[in-house]
Amino acid sequence: MKVLHVLRQLNPGGIECWLERLIRLWPGQSRPEFHIALEETDFGSLAPDFVAHGAVLHYCPPPRQVSRSANTFLSILKHSGPFSAVHCHNHHASAFHLLLAAESNVPLRISQSHADLRNDPGQRFVARQWYRKSASLALQRLANIKLAVSRGAGKDLFGEDVQDLNIFPCGSDFESLFSAESRPDPSRFTLVHVGRFVPGKNQHFLLQIMAELIRRQPNACLWLIGDGPLRSALENEAARLGIDNHVHFWGTRSDVPTLLAAANLFVFPSFSEGLGLAAIEAQASGLPVLLAKHLPEDLDLFPGRCRRLALDLPIHLWVDSILEMSAMPAMHLTERRSALIQSRFSMDANIQILSQIYAC
Asked: Are 267 and 206 in contact (CB under 8 A)?
């Protein structure tokens, strides 16, 4: 069985890291032959890992280069197939690839939504709304399997009235999170955040919170794990606020479980998230989590250890909550393991569900 996944690039991000785990952990005797079509000639820093796990990588220009993209994608389908499934992760742009897959008689055409952008100001332009509506209508017809990491993500991609939606949250390899021993430094109070440095993750708001928090708790520090186009702007903002000595930019790391285990509290103030796997992984590490109020309810894994606040509340109320939550100890490993190891957020559950879908 051959499966072709379609996404933009293989740099560290939620979709890319999940797909790498999926291919790496899928048992060899039942694993499909994974192919990946990528829109960038620079396949990304994770590309060698995918190749090492047996994935075949293809370059396919983005859909805005209509003729080149169509010809290249059809060539991949013809010369590297036949494919049992085309599995698209490029949100509304998936309609382009699934149309070509339908014309090539690919039996399974899967569109998976990883984002909920309905409240994103950038989506309010008339032309953008027309594009989204047209693509949603096309996907309702072209995708015979519709997946979404949350109900909101499904409505964003397939429309508010979507019926045949399968909620399929991307999972994590919890064993690496469970095995990292909790060791916060008692001399400091460490907030941690994991995410790409892009506008939707709202790290500028985190820096504003830190400026107020440090005035009330001078030993506070913030660890920002990730990278992206806003890194320089965030570093400059931290310096402008006079808190750069309290903010550590870790960049893209392979030891995230160890860093989470050394922190006290995870803060997640995103403007929008399809799900927000980073918050799931923080809870798997035993951390209490402070979330933006509007993020998916599926993120509240452990009642009492997840708190939500609206982004338009005054900064001092966010700081009040952080100080109140600072007394929460790390959650015991036994309780975390029993709740998560067999949950729908595990990679075993993901592999089992996709095995059934690919076998249709």
From this structure: yes
Sequence letter at residue 13: G
What DSSP designation does 200 have? Answer: G
pLDDT for 265: 96
The pLDDT value recorded for residue 276 is 92
90 closest CA partner among 116, 111, 67: 111
Main-chain dihedrals φ then ψ at residue 252, nearest 5 degrees: -75, 125
Phi-psi region of 310 (alpha: psi -120 to 50; beta: other; left: phi over 0): beta
Give all domains of the chain, ordered by start, each with its CATH number.
Answer: 2-171+345-358 (3.40.50.2000), 174-340 (3.40.50.2000)
Residue 41 structure tokens: 């000639």
Which residues, given as ranges, of the chain have pLDDT below 50? none
- What is the number of helices (H) and of strands (E) in the chain? 14, 13
User: What would the 3-class secondary structure string for 170-182 be?
Assistant: CCECHHHHHHCCC
Nearest 5°: the CA angle 55, 56, 57 is 115
Are the C-beta atoms of residues 236 and 266 closer than 8 Å to each other?
no
Furthest-apart CA atoms within the chain: distance in Å: 63
CB contact at 8 A, 330 and 182: yes
| Interacting residues of 268 by C-beta distance below 8 A, sequence separation 6+ | 193, 195, 276, 278, 279, 282, 289, 290, 291, 292, 295, 299
Q: Which amino acid is at 197?
A: F
User: Residue 252's closest CA among 306, 197, 214, 304?
Assistant: 197
Tokens of 74: 């059809």
- DSSP assignment string, 287-344: --EEEETTS-GGG--STTSEEEE-TTS-HHHHHHHHHHHTTPPPPPHHHHHHHHTTST
Tokens 């160890």 locate to 258
